[in-house]
Each structure stands twice: as structure tokens, then as C-alpha cells.
Write a structure and sequence with these properties.
Largest sheet: 7 strands, mixed
CATH superfamily of the largest domain: DD-peptidase/beta-lactamase superfamily
Structural class: alpha+beta
Helix content: 25-40%
Distance between the termini: 130 Å
Shape: elongated
Radius of gyration: 36 Å
Number of strands: 19
Number of domains: 2
């Protein structure tokens, strides 16, 4: 049962009140909806006609330069600013520390560290020398120093030739296996033919057995011991020898001065296969093929900036970490200003210009112990084949710069470096130029212009005393030694 306690006038009154409340609610609701619509339209307009909804955040005003920074109170170590125009132009953006205004009043492209000093340590120009950059292939300077410091410039890589069989002189056949062990990184076609030639002198023209190499054997810059063993076997056999191998052998005879000493065609045929395995205990040493001296291998490595050779040389002292430690300890460097991940300069490495300068000085002193200079282990610009062959090669500048280049096209957004020694009419200078984050050709143009400008402040370029020897002639200094008297056939 429903009870109604309101009279008709009261019901009418309350109905009017409810209608008023509902009307006010509807009006307010319309206002809120209108306001919300206007806000949404404004937001969409901004996002649509201003910048994309999913736009990338704006980059920081000073992009990330390197993983490692060596702190200094020197005001010249402020974060470098990228240049907007190439080559050398006057600008107020860069104010390096220098006593030569012509050197300081230039625009330096990319993120760059520069340090130039006289031989007695007086600064010529210094810009961001406490910051760590990627030195690229200038890491090879460290590798070269470490390996020469450890083994000496006259060290030779041995490649030993062994057998577990005997020779039948009537048939010129070795019945048994031939074993080859060694880690010579420069072992190539001509050296394989040289081994065949020496086996012929032993009265061996056929091997009734296998060719077996150890796992560190490499040939023709190939890191696979198995493939190197196969190439060795085919190169030793004249019937299977490639035209490239024959050419290398003939050039080797010419470059070594032994062309008239060759008797017939060096050849050894192998009936078995090629394998990689450890050396057994029942073998005897026939002879040893020794590479050219280490100083010559280093010279070729630096001239052509060969990454394979650099990594192999670094492995001799324990790899990139060991290379860095040798440099740190002998040059007096803090670990955080000289960090290496590779022995060749590939990838991410971090070195400050000051650390590189200390390395150059330490390396220079080490070479002086053997009456050697940078020209004995680095390319001389405009003279030696390789990375500096077409740089500083004008009539006046040829032979005035010796150093090491470095190039990385993509790593760290583009890297180019050049360090070494400059010869001028008023004396020699040591220099370090690390360019990063920019165009490699532009960096090289800057380096060429800037080094020439430096030379101009010291009376102009002067050719250093350097007797050039062709790199092929340097590599032809290999030899054969024997286990009894160690007599040498040079």
C-alpha cells in the first residue's frame, strides 16, 4: 500500500523546484562540455600543427663527447664546440692556449683535441688536451711501442718445420707427415714457396703423408688455421700454385737479391690432407723459417695501418689490455686517460692528447736506444707507400712529416686522427690531432692545412734525413736457420 502525504498545491510546488534544478544542471553541463571541447581542440591543434605528437626530445646543447673525461682546472678544457664550416677560418669560437696567435685564431671542425710541443716540451698550441677522444688507428702507436719494448726491433717470428718420417733419397719422398708450427703474422705465399724450396734442398719432392699445422698458424692474413693449412699445401705444390703465389715468389727473389740463386721450380706434392692439431712428441726439427725483423713488420703495419697485423702483434704481449698497461707504466699515465679495447684501433678506445704526447715521447726515447727514429717504424709523408703516401707531398713539404693516421667512418660519428713528428726549418715538433664527430675528409683537410700552418710559424717545412727503403724489400729479409749450427742462408 502506498501513502501520499502531499496535497496537490504542494506537489505542484515541488515539481517546479525539481524542474529548476534540472535546468540549472543542464546549463552547467553544457558549459562544462563546451569548455572541455575547446581545451581538446586547442591541444589537438598544437600537436597537429606545431610539432608531432611522438617527436624526439631535443638534443642537449652539448652532445655527449666521450665516455671518459680527465678533470682539469685548465680553462682550455671546456667542452669543445662543433664547427659549422670546414678547414681553417678565423673564428672566436675556439680560444686554445698558444703563443702563436695564427694557430689559435682558427676554426677547428668537430670535437677536437690538439697538442703541439717542441722536443724540449715547450707548448706550441694546446686545445682540450685533457679530454679523452677516440684515437682510431693511432692505437697502433701504442701496440708498436709495446711489442718493440718487449721483444726488441731485431726479433724474428719463427715458423718451424718438423717431420715424424724419413726420406727416401732414391725417390725423393718423405714417408711421414710434415708439421708446421708458428705464429708469424706476415707469413705469405712467398714464404710457403721458400719452405718448398728448402725441402727440395733436403731432397724432398713428395710427401707421402699429411700437412699438419698448429692452431696459431696463419697465412695470407687469414685467421683460420685450417684454411691457412690448405693454402700452404697448395702453394708448396707448383702444379696447384696460384698465379698470385708465383708472382709473389718471383718478386721475393728479386727483392731479396736471390733471383740468381734459385735452382729450378720449387715444388713439393702432398699425397695426404691438411689438418690442425697439437704437435706430437715424436717429431724432429728440419729447419726454421724466420720472418723479417720485427722493426720491418712494424713499419709495414704502420704504413698500411693493417688491422690484422696490429691485432696479432698486440697478442704477442697479451692483447689490448696488456698493451695499455705497458704504455701506462712506462709513460707514466693514469689508467683513465689511456684505455684500449683493441690493439688495432677498431671500436671504442679512449686516449687524451696529453697521454698520446707522453706515449710519443716515451716511444721516441725507446727507439733512440737502438739508434732508430720514428721514420724507421712509421710512414714518412709523401715518400712511403700507404696512408700518408699522398699527404704533405708538395715540393716543399715532402718528407717533412712522419706519423700515424687514424680513421673510423661510423664509430663515434666519424673519427680522424694524426699524430707524430713535424720537421721545420727551425726544429722538430711533436704533435697530436684528434678529430671526432664529423666528416673524415673534412677532418683530413683540416689536418693538412693546420700542420702546414704550424710549419709556417717555424720557418716552413724541412725534409728530414730519411733513406727510403721499399716496403717489399723490407719484407724480403726473411731467412732459413737450422737446428744444428743455426747457420743462416741470408
Amino acid at each position: 500500500m502506498c501513502y501520499n502525504f502531499l496535497s496537490f498545491p504542494e506537489k505542484a510546488y515541488h515539481s517546479n523546484q525539481i524542474r529548476k534544478i534540472m535546468n540549472r544542471f543542464t546549463e552547467k553541463k553544457a558549459l562544462w562540455l563546451s569548455a572541455a571541447f575547446l581545451l581538446m581542440f586547442s591541444w589537438l591543434a598544437t600537436e597537429t600543427f606545431g610539432q608531432p605528437v611522438y617527436s624526439k626530445p631535443s638534443p642537449p646543447s652539448k652532445p655527449f663527447l666521450q665516455d671518459i673525461q680527465v678533470k682539469s682546472d685548465n680553462p682550455s678544457t671546456a667542452a669543445p664546440v662543433a664547427s659549422s664550416t670546414p678547414l681553417v677560418k678565423k673564428t672566436a669560437k675556439v680560444s686554445p692556449s698558444t703563443a702563436y696567435p695564427a694557430l689559435g685564431d682558427v676554426e677547428i671542425p668537430g670535437y677536437t683535441g690538439i697538442l703541439v710541443e717542441t722536443l724540449d716540451g715547450k707548448p706550441v698550441i694546446e686545445s682540450y688536451s685533457d679530454y679523452a677522444f677516440n684515437p682510431a688507428s693511432n692505437v697502433k702507436v701504442a701496440t708498436a711501442y709495446a711489442v718493440l719494448k718487449t721483444f726488441g726491433p731485431e726479433y724474428r717470428f719463427p715458423t718451424n718445420v718438423w717431420t715424424d718420417g724419413s726420406v727416401d733419397q732414391a725417390t725423393n719422398t718423405l714417408y711421414g707427415n710434415l708439421y708446421v708450427s708458428g705464429r708469424d703474422p706476415i707469413f705469405n705465399y712467398e714464404h710457403a714457396v721458400a719452405i718448398a724450396n728448402e725441402l727440395n734442398r733436403f731432397g724432398i719432392r713428395t710427401i707421402s703423408g699429411d700437412i699438419i699445422v698448429t692452431d696459431n698458424f696463419a697465412m695470407n692474413f687469414n685467421g683460420s688455421a685450417a684454411r691457412s693449412a690448405s693454402t700452404l699445401a697448395s702453394t708448396m705444390d707448383a702444379a696447384k700454385r696460384s698465379a698470385a703465389a708465383t708472382k709473389s715468389w718471383l718478386e721475393y727473389l728479386t727483392n731479396s737479391g736471390r733471383y740468381n740463386q734459385a735452382q729450378g721450380i720449387a715444388s713439393v706434392s702432398i699425397t695426404g690432407g691438411t689438418y690442425v692439431q697439437p704437435m706430437p712428441s715424436n717429431v724432429r726439427l728440419l729447419f726454421t723459417h724466420e720472418s723479417a725483423p720485427l722493426k720491418e713488420i712494424v713499419k709495414v703495419t704502420m704504413c698500411y695501418s693493417n688491422n690484422f697485423l696490429a691485432e696479432k702483434l698486440g697478442d704477442m704481449v697479451g692483447g689490448p689490455y696488456a698493451v695499455a698497461r705497458v704504455v701506462q707504466l712506462n709513460a707514466g699515465l693514469a689508467p683513465n686517460e689511456f684505455i684500449l679495447q683493441t690493439s688495432s684501433g677498431l671500436g671504442i678506445n679512449r686516449v687524451t692528447p696529453k697521454a698520446q704526447m707522453k706515449l710519443l715521447r716515451t716511444f721516441r726515447s725507446e727507439l733512440a736506444r737502438y739508434k732508430m727514429t720514428f721514420a724507421d717504424v712509421m710512414p714518412v709523408a709523401g715518400i712511403d707507400k700507404g696512408t700518408l703516401e699522398n699527404r704533405f707531398d708538395t715540393d716543399f713539404a715532402t718528407g717533412s712529416v712522419v706519423g700515424k693516421t687514424g680513421t673510423l667512418g661510423n664509430t663515434d660519428a666519424g673519427v680522424s686522427s694524426l699524430t707524430g713528428e713535424i720537421n721545420t726549418k727551425n726544429g722538430k715538433l711533436l704533435f697530436v690531432i684528434f678529430n671526432q664527430r664529423g666528416s673524415v675528409p673534412r677532418f683530413r683537410s683540416f689536418q693538412n692545412s693546420y700542420v702546414s700552418l704550424i710549419q709556417g710559424q717555424f720557418g716552413g717545412p724541412a725534409q728530414m734525413n730519411y733513406n727510403a727503403v721499399a716496403l717489399n724489400v723490407r719484407m724480403a729479409k726473411s731467412r732459413i736457420t737450422y737446428p744444428d749450427s743455426r747457420a743462416r742462408l741470408d
